[in-house]
Amino acid sequence: MELDRFEKVLKATDVERLVVTSAMLAMLPRVDPDRDIPIRVFDNQRRRVYEFRLSGRQWGKYRKPVFQSREWRVFVKDRGVVAGDVLFFWVEEDPFHRTQYRIALYKPGLFP
User: Fold this and answer.
1) Per DSSP, what are the bridge partners of residue 92?
2) Strand, coil or helix: what is 62?
3) Which residue numbers delimit the TF-B3 domain (predicted)?
4) Residues 19-23: what's their mean pLDDT?
């Protein structure tokens, strides 16, 4: 059963580390400022699991949490993610009441 869905047009900064918006954050576990939270995400199109790290930024001007890890960059490289692509992220409950995170990517340049 699908619980929630999020859509984001990616910016250049999101290609390096995905800035997690408030709407997306509502679907995720609570951010712990002292440690990164592992988030297992299933890529619906490539049928691959990635483990992103949800990290709360403690310094600097911008405090929004990010997916900041090698796995996010692996996803970016695997999928050829560029600014302007649309990321879909959603949560599903499986029959055993476990939360599963899913991700898909739409590349607007591919379809005129």
Assistant:
1) 2, 100
2) coil
3) 6-109
4) 83
Edge-to-edge strand list for the sheet holding 2-9: 2-9, 86-93, 99-106, 37-43, 48-55, 66-67, 18-19
Closest Cα to residue 60, out of 9, 13, 27?
13
Question: In angstroms, rounded to a whole number, what is the distance separating the alpha carbons of residues 71 and 53?
Answer: 8
Domain boundaries, the chain: 5-110
Q: Give pLDDT, residue 59.
A: 61
CB 6 within 8 Å of CB 90: yes
CATH superfamily of 5-110: DNA-binding pseudobarrel domain (2.40.330.10)
Q: What percent of the chain has pLDDT over 70?
A: 86
Single-letter code of the amino acid located at 93: E
Residue position matching structure tokens 């997690």 = 20
DSSP 8-class letter at 35: B
3-state class (DSSP) for residue 31? coil
Query: With pLDDT > 90 as the criterion, what percentage of the chain qualifies?
Result: 38
